[in-house]
């Protein structure tokens, strides 16, 4: 993969019920999630911007702007301006219905 998959560019909501092993599963907005007190989300935009949406006070989502860039095959670097630690994600699977990511270790 020399470019991120085109289906990546949208808001993805964490479907933690589907997580397995070290893979986190995200679904697009509109997916029929079971009730939850809060769900983190993230949004990738084609212009290289990124919005992390951790669960904030009162279980409401927060918004932390950042940037993404492809660093190697299937790996994205996410950078933030001091508000959150930078991190890397591996895209395990991405299509119109689901995004599977893994945080590389080491």
Helices and strands in order:
Blueprint: E1 11-14, E2 23-28, E3 41-44, E4 49-53, E5 64-72, E6 75-80, E7 87-94, E8 99-102
Antiparallel strand pairs: 1-2, 1-3, 2-8, 3-4, 4-5, 5-6, 6-7, 7-8
Short description:
This protein is 0% helix and 43% strand.
Strand content: 35-45%
Shape: globular
What is the CA-based Rg, rounded?
13 Å
Q: Give me the count of strands.
A: 8
Mean of all residue-level pLDDT scores: 89
Distance separating the two termini:
22 Å
User: What is the element string, with H for helices and E for strands?
Assistant: EEEEEEEE
Residue share in helix: under 10%
From the helix content, strand content and strand pairing, which structural class follows?
A: mainly beta
Can you summarize the main beta sheet?
A: 8 strands, antiparallel, barrel
Strand order of the largest sheet: 1-2-8-7-6-5-4-3
How many H/I helices? 0
Describe this protein's structure.
- This protein is an all-beta fold and 106 residues long.
- Helices cover 0% and strands 43% of the residues.
- An 8-stranded antiparallel barrel has the order 1-2-8-7-6-5-4-3.
- A hairpin with a 6-residue loop joins β6 and β7.
- The model has no long low-confidence stretch (mean pLDDT 89).
Task: Please name the defining characteristics of this protein.
0% helix; 8 strands; mainly beta; eight-stranded antiparallel β-barrel; globular; 43% strand; single chain; 106 residues
């Amino acid at each position: 993969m020399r470019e991120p998959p085109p289906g990546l560019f949208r808001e993805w909501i964490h479907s933690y019920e589907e997580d397995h092993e070290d893979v986190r599963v995200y679904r697009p907005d509109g997916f029929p999630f079971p009730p939850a007190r809060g769900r983190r989300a993230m949004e990738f935009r084609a212009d290289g911007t990124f919005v992390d949406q951790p669960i904030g006070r009162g279980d409401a989502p927060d918004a932390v702007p950042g940037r993404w860039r492809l660093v190697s095959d299937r790996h994205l670097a996410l950078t933030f301006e001091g508000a959150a630690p930078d991190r890397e994600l591996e895209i395990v699977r991405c299509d119109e219905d689901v995004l599977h990511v893994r945080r590389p270790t080491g």
